[in-house]
Design a protein that fits this description.
Layout lengths: L5 E4 L9 H9 L3 E4 L10 H5 L11 H9 L18 E5 L16 H12 E2 L3 E9 L7 H4 L8 E8 L5 E2 L7 E5 L10 H18 L3 H4 L3 E2 L1 H12 L6 H11 L2 E8 L7 E6 L1 H4 L11
């Protein structure tokens, strides 16, 4: 068999050339040339055909735009890079209520909030914020039992932690446990009202402020970040591709140049939050997710 063909090969990083096969083609009359590699992107069309890539960090932005424009390798909407996660709430088990404490003499409200948190949970990365003051009449049954018309007011705080990193501390008295937010028991006092307000505040807050970066470790993947947002906002808020594109365009995430490998997938890039780059954006009424 005699071949009358011109063949140009474009090497891909990580894949060696089989010189024996190239010589075999030449022996049949083919003219074979090997081009200088056009890029250093470690991704193939075969990977894209198998579905939406979990970490498409290696695809140039112009190529991603072309893929979206022509609906190539379509990704099912709502596909997430991680198994579905849920919001959980830490409650004391004695009266099924939010953890709380009485302020001590000379102790600020913020100090008291961190103290009760440290007594219940061990965690390195967390976000804490004062929520609201609750003081409705008859909110606490102890008011009716007191002859001096004493009122019980609660200044509430909410803390956001990653479930996988948080360790609950059993105090031997009331105990504490995680409860799925969508399947809570009846809460004592007016704690359901506090919880409803806190959940609304958290979901609004993460849309325009960098709350998530206080919870994540210093270096994180975009999948880690996306997982956190879908846990808080639900899977309908954005698909992964749009989320990734929007966040990177804002310019406050820095690619560290380090990659991490998890399971059978290809290595994912680790990013770092740049607080200085975010500074000009913090007072702008924007929604970055």
């Amino acid at each position: 068999m005699r071949l009358w063909a011109n063949i140009v090969g474009f090497p891909r990083p990580g894949y060696g050339l089989n010189q024996t096969e190239l010589d075999e083609l030449r022996s049949h009359g083919a003219r074979v040339a090997i081009a200088t590699p056009l890029s250093q992107h470690h991704i193939s069309s075969s990977t894209l055909r198998q579905g939406c890539p979990e970490q498409p960090d290696e695809i140039p932005a112009v190529v991603q735009a072309y893929i979206r424009q022509h609906n190539l390798y379509p990704c099912p909407r709502k596909t997430t890079p991680h198994p579905k996660q849920i919001l959980r709430l830490a409650l004391t088990k004695s009266k099924i209520q939010l953890p709380g404490t009485l302020g001590r003499q000379g102790e600020s409200l913020e100090t008291a909030s961190y103290r009760v948190l440290s007594e219940k949970i061990r965690v390195d990365n967390l976000y804490v914020e004062q929520l609201y003051s609750f003081g409705g009449p008859k909110r606490d049954p102890r008011e009716a039992e007191n002859a001096f018309n004493v009122r019980y007011l609660s200044v509430s705080y909410f803390a956001l932690v990653r479930y996988a990193e948080a360790e609950l501390i059993a105090d031997g008295v009331s105990g504490i446990a995680w409860y799925p937010l969508g399947h809570l028991p009846s809460l004592a006092f007016d704690h359901h009202e506090i919880l409803t307000y806190g959940t609304m505040r958290l979901r609004n807050k993460v849309k325009y402020s960098p709350v998530a970066f206080d919870v994540l470790p210093e270096m994180f993947t975009l999948s880690d970040l996306y997982q956190l947002y879908t846990t808080i906002l639900g899977e309908d808020f954005s698909d992964y591709s749009n989320f990734r594109t929007r966040l990177l365009k804002l310019g406050f995430l820095t690619d560290t140049g380090i990659k991490t490998s998890r399971g059978a997938g290809r290595p994912a890039s680790l990013y770092r939050f740049d607080a200085e780059a975010f500074e000009p954006l913090k007072d702008k009424p924007m929604v970055f997710v």
